[in-house]
Design a protein that fits this description.
By secondary structure, the protein is mainly β. Helix content is 9%, strand content 34%. The strands form three sheets. Strands 1, 2, 3, 4, 5, 6, 9, 10, 11, 12 and 13 form an eleven-stranded mixed β-sheet that branches.
Length: 194
């Protein structure tokens, strides 16, 4: 995970006040363009895209993913965002009211890096990340916590594996995958196998 020193972080906040994030949380059936836009402050993009972004995000969190090369396993990366759940903040109610009336679970999310003077904010050039909203929400009267999963699960491929079963193999290699070449490669007599 990328991290900055506290002095650099303070400097970025102080000198780069025109950059911000907006996030779209989609609901209803797949392929639908129904979404609610959120950001860290109320942001009105009515003149170009007709969208309003509610300033309810209190923490965009961080994106994390893990991989274990030796066991050939990985975890889908996720991002946790915290949303203020205060009365009369969105559509005359709390954000948790939207969760109970609209179907956000397993729907799309999109995160955009924006600058105040560059419009529209939510175009493909500004898209940073996208994925699926996890179906399990955590909330109380003050805050809603959403888990946002990336889309990598839709592009992951299972590689064929044969495991070591021979009694001649070292004990630590038993039931581990046999290394294999995968992908594009060719023989070059001058430099060996690539």
């Amino acid at each position: 995970m990328l991290s900055f020193t506290s002095s650099l972080t303070r400097g970025l906040h102080a000198k780069n006040t025109n950059a911000f994030w907006v996030i779209k949380l989609y609901y209803n059936a797949g392929g639908s363009n129904d979404f609610y836009g959120l950001s860290d402050a109320n942001r009105n993009a009515q003149e170009n895209s007709g969208h309003f972004y509610y300033g309810l995000v209190t923490d965009f969190g961080s994106i994390s993913q893990s991989i274990d090369f030796f066991d050939f396993t990985s975890n889908i990366s996720s991002m946790t965002i915290k949303i203020a759940n205060v009365p009369n903040s969105i559509n005359g109610g709390r954000f948790s009211d939207l969760l109970s009336t609209l179907n956000f679970g397993n729907r799309k999310w999109e995160l955009f890096q924006c600058k105040q003077e560059v419009r529209p904010w939510d175009n493909d050039n500004n898209l940073l990340a996208e994925g699926i909203i996890a179906g399990d929400f955590t909330y109380n009267r003050n805050e809603v916590i959403l888990q946002l999963l990336d889309k990598s699960g839709t592009i992951h491929k299972d590689l064929p594996t044969n495991v070591v079963t021979s009694s001649d193999a070292p004990k630590e290699n038993l039931n581990k995958p046999i290394p294999m070449q995968y992908g594009d490669f060719h023989d070059n007599p001058n430099i060996g196998t690539i």
